[in-house]
Amino acid sequence: MAPQDEGLWTYSTHLVEICPSIFHSTQDTYARLQQIKHILANKGADFMVPCGKENNRDCDLLKHLSAWNDIASAIKVEISELVATRELALCFSVKTSNQREMEGRIQRAVLLLHWLLIKHTCVTTIELEDLTQFNDPECFTLFCDGIRNCRRLRVFNASADIGEASYYRQLLTACKSSRHLQMLHFQRISDAENLGNMAILADVIARNPNLVVFHVDEFSATPGDTSAVLQALQRCQSLSHLSLEVTSFNADEARVLLEMLNGNNVLKSLHIEGKTLPRHIRVNSVASALSSATALVELELVGFRMQTRDASILAMSLVHAQTVQNLVLIDCVPLFSSTYEHNSAEANYALGRNSSPIDPYLYILQGLRCLRSLAFDLLRFTSADQRAFLEVLAGNESLKYVFFDVPYVGYPKELFRIATQTGTASRLCCKPIAMDATDFANLPMGFCVEEVVLNVHANACNNNMPTVNARFADPRTLDHVTDMTVCIAGGIIDPSTAKLLALYLQNSKRLNTLTLDFSAKKESNLLLLDAISRNTSITTLGVEKWCLSKRSATVLADIVHSSRMIHTLTYNQESRVPAKAFFSRLSDSIGSNCTLVSVNTFERQRNAKSWALIQNVVMRNAVFLIRAARFVAKLSSCKGDAEVLELVASSPLLPLRVQLLASVDECEAARAIRQATWNLRDLDGFMRITGVVRESVVCEESSDCRPRLDTLPADCWLAIRQYLSVADVVDNGSSGC
Predict the structure, then answer these.
(1) Count of domains in the chain?
(2) Three-class SS of residue 721?
(3) Which of 205, 639, 687, 725 is the most interior residue, by most CB within 10 Å?
(4) What pLDDT is recorded for position 137?
(5) Of all residues in the chain, what percent are helix, strand and coil, respectively (each to 5)?
(6) Residue 274 sits in a domain of what CATH number?
């Protein structure tokens, strides 16, 4: 009997040829595809329809493939807003203990992905954050076969370790069909004898002469095999962003890399990392190769052995070129020479003091006029050198920030004391500082570190209670903190500490990220929850070993539901003790929340139904943000996207989405959002977007002197507008957007 759907039958035949162990016969495969098609039809989606290729629009359906929520534990597939955003969102929300059922769900999901790649041949972007779901070799083969059909692919980003070298061979071979790649990013490239993955990668690069960005975090290959890749990159005339891990490079590979850098007038960003102090690539050789570079704006050297002479040569090269604006020298172990000789008159920094290991950095501060940010291991230098650096920094108005790592637990009191004296404390930035109760109690006034981790034992906290409480009581001490973690192990937070912590949380205007990891009594619970509900700046909230009772869990759910600021929540994920009351309460009311885009917790089967509802709304909100950003960036004029903008206009994530989508800075993104929301409030803008008029409101003359809409005062219209929404205007039977 002839098949009802010739397209599905042809596709079934193709699947049997590719993966015979999964798809045993064309008839069986055809039946499975019909079942999937029926599931999608019930969801309101149809992959059989054409995509953006018909109107020459690019297709970014796989841009957010990271929305696959733990595909290995999937039991269902959700397709969200496919028609409106042309994006694929797959949600697998409930864990299952049935291994056979789980494998079936994985196969279904990979099958959907493969069909998407084949049907939507204009896919231009594929970004993968996790590939562990392709644990079946034939599933991975199916995925690579789909990539082979993406002939217009421009961006391929596999920021995940794919695994075995044979998998990399399949993936790289699939990329050989592309001719328009502009960005290639791999977390790791693995090779083995007789596989020739490096040669295949070199071939992919050679077939894409317009490659702009090439990024590999780790090469796991035999030394010498990377030379072909470097030679292919050397022939890319448009390569402007290069990031390589060079630990395993031999002398020949190092020579090819330096030849590629020497005289390169196209390269704008260079990141070179050596995880175990590479032998054949030295900082002075890189500096010499870059001495004549005219376009380099960002330079990152990570994990190199750097003697004083190396730093001196690098400083002279950068000052001579006058192009680098962002300089990163992290984990570059300084080897301070006992005798330091200047080999050039230009290296004499004329600082009126004896030569010192800090001198090259002083020379950079004084001579590199275009420098805007600098990151280096400032704490490895002596206090005298730190003072000399900060004194010169005080006179440099163009350098906005200096970043440094804190290699130990505790607050660098001496450095910040010097920074306060020199007036440069606000320009020093570092990663989160982990401290115990003593360090926290001894924080000086003017403390300006933005990320703090307070990690103490309950007994130690009690011994330092008066001074710890004093720090929470004085708002000036923690005025600069934007990210705080409070972890109290081995006991319950003291009520007096909880009271002052609650006061700080209630009044803080800069705190964006908060994680509370401790147990608390009933009174302390209510105080802290009330403070969080009154805070107007927290956007990311983490809760561990807390809010476990029915009442506190319910209150927390109400706070999250009603908040217009909290977009990310982690609820007892590590402690694995989530309360059922939290899920049931949040699932009942979360439908009206349009801000929350991420909820992380430890999933239990008894909470499966409520958890699925929460995940569906979270995914919907994430899609809302994308649609609203497209409307703000004027990439869409759809009435439906205008409706969404009204819902998420106050979301703290919207400016970030607009920045990425429109390639603008933070101020321009905020200005665009204000303009878009004002257009929705304006009479002509509202009527035009809702489809009532084409350009502006023009009313006919009235003989009875009734008020006309186009002559209505602006304040009167705005008073009316507050009771109207875009969704209130019903389409007049048109096909819509």
Answers:
(1) 2
(2) helix
(3) 205
(4) 77
(5) 45, 15, 40
(6) 3.80.10.10
Across 412-429, average pLDDT: 87
CA angle 352, 353, 356 (to 5 degrees): 135
Asked if the model's pLDDT at residue 270 lies above 70, the reply is yes
Of 43-47, 121-125, 509-513, 631-635, least confident by mean pLDDT is: 43-47
Q: Is the pLDDT of residue 632 over 80?
A: yes
In terms of C-beta density within 10 A (0-12 exposed, 13-18 middle, 19 or more buried), how is residue 544 classed? buried
CB 279 within 8 A of CB 252: no
Radius of gyration from C-alpha coordinates of the chain: 30
Residue 612 belongs to some domain of the structure: no
Strand 568-571's sheet: what is its strand order? Answer: 433-435, 451-457, 483-492, 513-519, 540-544, 568-571, 598-601
Between residues 208 and 92, the one the model is more confident about: 208
pLDDT at 129 exceeding the cut of 80: no
Find tokens 């049935």 and name the residue. 98
d(CA 508, CA 346): 49
How many CB atoms are closer than 10 A to CB 727? 14
Instruction: Tell me the average pLDDT across 175-189.
Output: 89
Rounding to the nearest 10 degrees, give the CA dihedral for residues 543, 546, 548, 551.
-90
**CA distances (Å), origin 285, targets 257, 359, 552:** 11, 20, 61
410's tokens: 């505790």
Amino acid letter at 50?
P
Q: In angstroms, rounded to a whole number, what is the distance separating the alpha carbons of residues 453 and 113? A: 41
| Single residue among 365, 397, 431 that ends a domain in this structure | 431
Identify whether 34 is part of a domain. no
So what's the pLDDT on residue 76? 38
The chain-wide mean pLDDT, for the chain, equals 79
Q: Of 383, 402, 431, which residue constitutes the final position of a domain?
A: 431
- Please give the Cα distance from 568 to 548 (Å, whole number): 19
Task: State which residues form the domain around 661.
Answer: 625-697+708-728
- Residue, of 304 and 192, whose pLDDT is higher: 304
Strands 333-335 and 305-307: parallel
What pLDDT band is residue 79 in, cutting at 50, 70 and 90?
Answer: very low
Residue 445 belongs to a domain:
no
Asked if the model's pLDDT at residue 277 lies above 70, the reply is no
User: Within a domain: residue 62?
Assistant: no
